[in-house]
Amino acid sequence: MIVQISSDAELDILEGYRFYEDQSPGLGEYFRDSVLADIDALSFFAGIHERAFGHHRMLCKTFPFAVYYDCDTRAERAIVIAVVDCRRSPSWMRDRLT
User: Fold this and answer.
1) Residue 32: which of 1, 2, 62 has the closest Cα?
2) 8 A C-beta contact, residue 1 and residue 46
3) Which of 4, 39, 42, 90 is most buried, judged by most C-beta within 10 A?
4) 98 pLDDT above the threshold of 90
5) How far apart, in Å, are the Cα atoms of 92 and each of 68, 84, 86, 87, 97?
6) Which CATH number characterizes residue 39's domain?
7) Residues above pLDDT 70, as percent of the chain
8) pTM score, two decimals?
9) Which phi-psi region, left, alpha or beta, contains residue 4 (left: φ > 0; alpha: ψ -120 to 50)?
């Protein structure tokens, strides 16, 4: 399956990168690499995750983030919509994802 990352999701990853890089030099790069590895796994596992706010939600393994994506099985494509910090309020996430 082909995995595409939307421009909004790319901005989410960049925002997380900057946050963690401010915490400790090099941590931002580790965050980015970890999240992208989780997203790469969607090429094998897209569509198996539960749905939340109208999209599939995959929890990241290393950081408290969730990857929201839509899956088009006919086109064999998964589109990452957002990469969201799970520490945000649920109402903020709902507004962001709907």
Assistant:
1) 62
2) yes
3) 42
4) no
5) 14, 10, 10, 10, 9
6) 3.30.2310.20
7) 100
8) 0.93
9) beta
* 3-class secondary structure, 54: coil
Q: Measured between alpha carbons, how far is residue 95 from residues 4, 12, 20, 91, 92 in Å?
A: 22, 15, 24, 6, 5
- pLDDT(72) > 90: no
Mean pLDDT of 10-18: 97
User: Who has greater pLDDT, 52 or 74?
Assistant: 52
**CB within 8 A of 61, min separation 6: which ones?**
34, 38
- SS3 (DSSP) at 78: strand
Task: Provide the residue range defining the domain that includes 60.
Answer: 2-97
- Count of the separate structural domains present in the chain: 1
